[in-house]
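Summary: Need help interpreting a holo structure output

Steps to reproduce:
1. Submit the protein chain below together with the SMILES for NAI.
2. Request a joint structure prediction with the ligand placed.
3. Inspect the structure token block that comes back.

Expected: a single structure record containing both the chain and the bound molecule.
Actual: see attached output.

Input attached:
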Amino acid sequence: MGDTLRVAVIGAKGRIGSEAVRAVEAAAGMELVAALGRGDDLGELTRTGAQVAVELTHPDSVMENLEFCVRNGIHGVVGTTGWTDERLARLTGWLAESPGTGVLIAPNFSIGAVLTMRFAAQAARFFESAEVIELHHPTKADAPSGTATRTAQLIAEARRAADLPPQPDATTTGLPGARGADVDGVHVHSVRVRGLLAHQEVLLGGQGETLTIRHDSLHHSSFMPGILLAARKVTGTPGLTFGLENYLDLD
Ligand SMILES: NC(=O)C1=CN([C@@H]2O[C@H](COP(=O)(O)OP(=O)(O)OC[C@H]3O[C@@H](n4cnc5c(N)ncnc54)[C@H](O)[C@@H]3O)[C@@H](O)[C@H]2O)C=CC1
Ligand SMILES: O=C(O)C1=N[C@H](C(=O)O)C[C@H](O)C1
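--- attached output ---
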């Protein structure tokens, strides 16, 4: 097998999965050994000696796929959304039984989105108000996006650390849903519009000023450098890592 990293893509026919297949095929030092779609046999991963599986499917599929990978010592690079504390705890349990195996879950693989989350967390303590607007293609299965959920959680953590009070909001009447979803005290608004891909704005507001942090993914290629970096790093990073920022030297 030499030094070439043997990589599989699960969800290989999807929007991001098909881009990942092309990226792995073109990447130096990597070989695409399996490209699995819905209904394909996961046994292909062990038969082909995959070392890393890039999981880009659906929240309903990701747990079964990851359980197979971890139990077979195959490292995981996961972009699929839908993570809850309960799911993370199950995954952590499988990893504990498979020492040396690593899984990276990245709510977003694009560097701009990772930086958006970081900047939003840094700015949060300075502003009374913070809301997130995420805008995506209308074929997206989940809302809010994994990125927006994580962004809101990071903002909430920063507000708690700074002992900020709840956000000002006098709304007492109106249509249900008009204020978006409440993620840990931070409102998140999900827009689904044909022509969009993946976009996010974080709006922060204080006395007499606002700060808007915006990121746009204009093509699925924006996620590929992060996926390839993660595939290279995950083999030396056992256990669960949540967020691509942990693989980047950001500080
Ligand atoms: N973390 C990140 O940077 C990014 C994450 N995503 C996430 O990736 C996931 C997929 O997104 P899209 O490609 O847009 O969706 P998609 O619907 O275009 O593709 C998903 C593919 O997975 C396949 N699939 C479903 N269950 C499967 C299974 N058990 N085994 C093998 N294949 C299976 C489907 O048939 C489909 O071809 C979503 O959760 C999305 O939010 C998408 C883009 C970037
Ligand atoms: O479904 C998508 O397209 C995307 N999903 C991820 C998310 O939910 O945050 C990442 C990116 O926004 C694209």
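--- end attachment ---

Reviewer comment: The helical segments are 15-26, 43-47, 62-71, 85-96, 111-123, 146-161, 224-234. Residues 11 and 17 are 5 Å apart (CA to CA).
Status: needs-info
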